[in-house]
Protein backbone atom coordinates (compact mmCIF):
# COMPACT_ATOMS: atom_id res chain seq x y z
CA UNK A 1 0.00 0.00 0.00
CA UNK A 2 1.42 3.31 -1.13
CA UNK A 3 1.17 6.22 1.36
CA UNK A 4 -0.58 9.35 0.11
CA UNK A 5 1.37 12.51 -0.33
CA UNK A 6 1.12 15.27 2.23
CA UNK A 7 -1.43 18.03 1.69
CA UNK A 8 0.90 20.97 1.19
CA UNK A 9 -1.68 23.63 2.09
CA UNK A 10 -2.77 21.86 5.26
CA UNK A 11 0.85 21.37 6.29
CA UNK A 12 1.73 25.01 5.57
CA UNK A 13 -1.25 26.15 7.63
CA UNK A 14 -0.12 23.95 10.50
CA UNK A 15 3.43 25.33 10.39
CA UNK A 16 2.14 28.90 10.09
CA UNK A 17 -0.19 28.40 13.07
CA UNK A 18 2.58 26.88 15.19
CA UNK A 19 4.95 29.76 14.44
CA UNK A 20 2.23 32.30 15.06
CA UNK A 21 1.37 30.89 18.47
CA UNK A 22 5.01 30.37 19.45
CA UNK A 23 6.18 33.82 18.39
CA UNK A 24 3.19 35.56 19.98
CA UNK A 25 3.75 33.87 23.31
CA UNK A 26 7.50 34.47 23.13
CA UNK A 27 6.97 38.16 22.37
CA UNK A 28 4.51 38.50 25.25
CA UNK A 29 6.89 36.79 27.67
CA UNK A 30 9.79 38.99 26.52
CA UNK A 31 7.68 42.11 27.06
CA UNK A 32 6.72 40.97 30.56
CA UNK A 33 10.25 39.95 31.52
CA UNK A 34 12.12 42.90 30.06
CA UNK A 35 9.42 45.26 31.29
CA UNK A 36 10.15 44.06 34.79
CA UNK A 37 13.91 44.31 34.27
CA UNK A 38 13.64 47.80 32.76
CA UNK A 39 11.42 48.90 35.61
CA UNK A 40 13.98 47.55 38.02
CA UNK A 41 16.86 49.24 36.19
CA UNK A 42 15.37 52.67 35.56
CA UNK A 43 12.61 53.16 38.10
CA UNK A 44 13.45 50.98 41.03
CA UNK A 45 11.83 53.29 43.58
CA UNK A 46 8.45 52.05 42.24
CA UNK A 47 9.36 48.48 43.16
CA UNK A 48 10.72 49.60 46.51
CA UNK A 49 7.38 51.06 47.64
CA UNK A 50 6.06 49.43 50.77
CA UNK A 51 2.66 47.77 50.42
CA UNK A 52 2.54 46.38 53.88
CA UNK A 53 4.61 46.31 56.94
CA UNK A 54 7.23 43.91 55.59
CA UNK A 55 6.63 43.74 51.83
CA UNK A 56 7.57 45.90 48.89
CA UNK A 57 5.75 46.17 45.57
CA UNK A 58 8.63 44.37 43.85
CA UNK A 59 7.82 41.03 45.47
CA UNK A 60 4.29 40.58 44.07
CA UNK A 61 5.34 41.97 40.71
CA UNK A 62 8.28 39.55 40.58
CA UNK A 63 5.99 36.68 41.52
CA UNK A 64 3.57 37.79 38.79
CA UNK A 65 6.40 37.59 36.24
CA UNK A 66 7.16 34.02 37.34
CA UNK A 67 3.49 33.05 37.41
CA UNK A 68 2.92 34.53 33.96
CA UNK A 69 5.64 32.24 32.59
CA UNK A 70 3.95 29.23 34.21
CA UNK A 71 0.52 30.24 32.90
CA UNK A 72 1.81 30.85 29.39
CA UNK A 73 3.58 27.49 29.40
CA UNK A 74 0.36 25.82 30.48
CA UNK A 75 -1.60 27.60 27.76
CA UNK A 76 0.92 26.53 25.13
CA UNK A 77 0.86 22.92 26.30
CA UNK A 78 -2.94 22.95 26.28
CA UNK A 79 -2.97 24.39 22.76
CA UNK A 80 -0.35 21.87 21.58
CA UNK A 81 -2.15 18.90 23.14
CA UNK A 82 -5.50 19.80 21.65
CA UNK A 83 -5.44 21.88 18.48
CA UNK A 84 -1.91 21.18 17.24
CA UNK A 85 -1.94 17.45 17.91
CA UNK A 86 -5.38 17.15 16.28
CA UNK A 87 -4.03 18.87 13.15
CA UNK A 88 -0.96 16.63 13.05
CA UNK A 89 -3.15 13.54 13.43
CA UNK A 90 -5.39 14.76 10.62
CA UNK A 91 -2.41 15.19 8.29
CA UNK A 92 -1.01 11.77 9.23
CA UNK A 93 -4.39 10.10 8.76
CA UNK A 94 -4.72 11.72 5.35
CA UNK A 95 -1.26 10.46 4.37
CA UNK A 96 -2.07 6.91 5.51
CA UNK A 97 -5.18 6.96 3.39
Automatic annotation (TrEMBL):
Keywords: Membrane, Transmembrane, Transmembrane helix. InterPro entries: DUF485, Inner_membrane_assoc. It comes from the Bacteria. GO terms for cellular component: plasma membrane. The chain crosses the membrane at residues 21-42, 54-77. Coiled coil: none annotated. Pfam families: DUF485. This is Inner membrane protein YjcH. The lineage of its organism: Bacteria, Pseudomonadati, Thermodesulfobacteriota, Desulfovibrionia, Desulfovibrionales.
